């Protein structure tokens, strides 16, 4: 069951293609024969994807208003496809398809860097089903609850190095190349890990890449002055006062 759960909801390779229809994959799964369980899982799918995407996009756009160099690199990555679309008469507004953003390694790095510093689910909370010993050597007992701060983990020098506080998408690329660097999910825990890994992980990165590509290519973003940008203590890492950004159509 665990293997199926991890593959489900992904897109891209053969295995993933087969399970791209999430609803059918659950309906056809004997582990979800209980209608209430199926109902709960489908509800989880509808709820889990909403606020998490919203807040990731908010923090990403905020960071982009602060980092014009990063915006230029994203536009450089988008330009071959965007200019081709313009040449073939696609009109003034360039809209990117999910397929077209697949090769955009830097854009993926930007999103992962946001998710590292601003994990939409900032805490993991798990209650122990049985006594156990953690990899750290700590004893835990049935009924006890463990809280893991993903927000802190994303900012720890021991894990991410001296520049752990910097917004640096290049850390997600192999040194001196434009190839993605893969970090283990127990280190980059924003989507959780193992059997608890988010089944929407692949889909959400594709969706967000498409949105950020389309906004960044077509508009200049400017942060409206005088705002206080700070996180709000809640179960998702919202912005306490929201984000106000001016969008100006780019002349290309
Ligand atoms: C940036 C976006 C997202 C992040 C950071 C994220 C993160 C997570 C995390 C950390 C968990 C594990 C929670 C736990 O430990 O129990 C989780 C579970 C889940 N996520 Fe996501 N998620 C995102 C988007 C999505 C989307 C778009 C979908 C749906 C298409 C989705 C569907 C689910 C579902 C159904 C679960 C529960 C799985 C289960 O209980 O077996 N997520 N997500």
Automatic annotation (TrEMBL):
Question: Could you read off the lineage of the organism from its UniProt record?
Answer: Eukaryota, Viridiplantae, Streptophyta, Embryophyta, Tracheophyta
Native species of this protein? Triticum urartu
Protein name according to UniProt: Cytochrome P450 86B1
**What InterPro entries does the annotation carry?**
Cyt_P450, Cyt_P450_E_grp-IV, Cyt_P450_sf
Asked if the Swiss-Prot or TrEMBL record annotates the protein with the keyword Iron, the reply is yes
Q: Which UniProt keywords apply?
A: Heme, Iron, Metal-binding, Oxidoreductase
Residues reported to bind heme: 198
Q: Which family does it belong to?
A: Belongs to the cytochrome P450 family.
Q: What GO molecular function annotations does the UniProt record carry, in alphabetical order? A: heme binding; iron ion binding; monooxygenase activity; oxidoreductase activity, acting on paired donors, with incorporation or reduction of molecular oxygen
Cofactor(s) the protein requires to work: heme
Which Pfam families does this UniProt record tie to the protein?
Answer: p450 (PF00067)
Tagged with keyword 4Fe-4S: no
């Amino acid at each position: 069951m665990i293997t199926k759960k991890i593959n489900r909801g992904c897109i891209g390779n053969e295995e993933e293609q087969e399970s791209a229809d999430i609803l059918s994959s659950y309906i056809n799964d004997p582990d979800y024969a209980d209608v209430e369980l199926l109902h709960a899982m489908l509800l989880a799918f509808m709820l889990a994807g909403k606020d998490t995407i919203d807040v990731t996009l908010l923090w990403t756009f905020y960071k982009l208003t602060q980092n014009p160099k990063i915006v230029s690199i994203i536009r450089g990555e988008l330009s071959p496809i965007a200019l081709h679309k313009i040449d073939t008469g696609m009109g003034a507004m360039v809209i990117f398809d999910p397929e077209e953003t697949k090769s955009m390694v830097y854009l993926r790095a930007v999103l992962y860097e946001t998710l590292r510093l601003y994990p939409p689910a900032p805490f993991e909370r798990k209650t122990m089903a049985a006594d156990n010993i953690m990899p750290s050597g700590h004893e835990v007992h049935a009924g006890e609850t463990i809280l893991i701060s993903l927000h802190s983990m994303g900012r720890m020098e021991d894990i991410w190095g001296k520049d752990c506080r910097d917004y640096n998408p290049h850390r997600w690329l192999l040194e001196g190349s434009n190839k993605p660097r893969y970090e283990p999910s127990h280190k980059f825990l924003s989507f959780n890990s193992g059997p608890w890994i988010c089944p929407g992980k692949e889909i959400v990165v594709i969706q967000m890449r498409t949105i950020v590509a389309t906004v960044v290519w077509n508009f200049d973003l400017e942060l409206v002055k005088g705002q206080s940008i700070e996180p709000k203590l809640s179960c998702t890492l919202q912005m306490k006062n929201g984000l106000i950004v001016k969008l100006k159509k780019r002349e290309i």
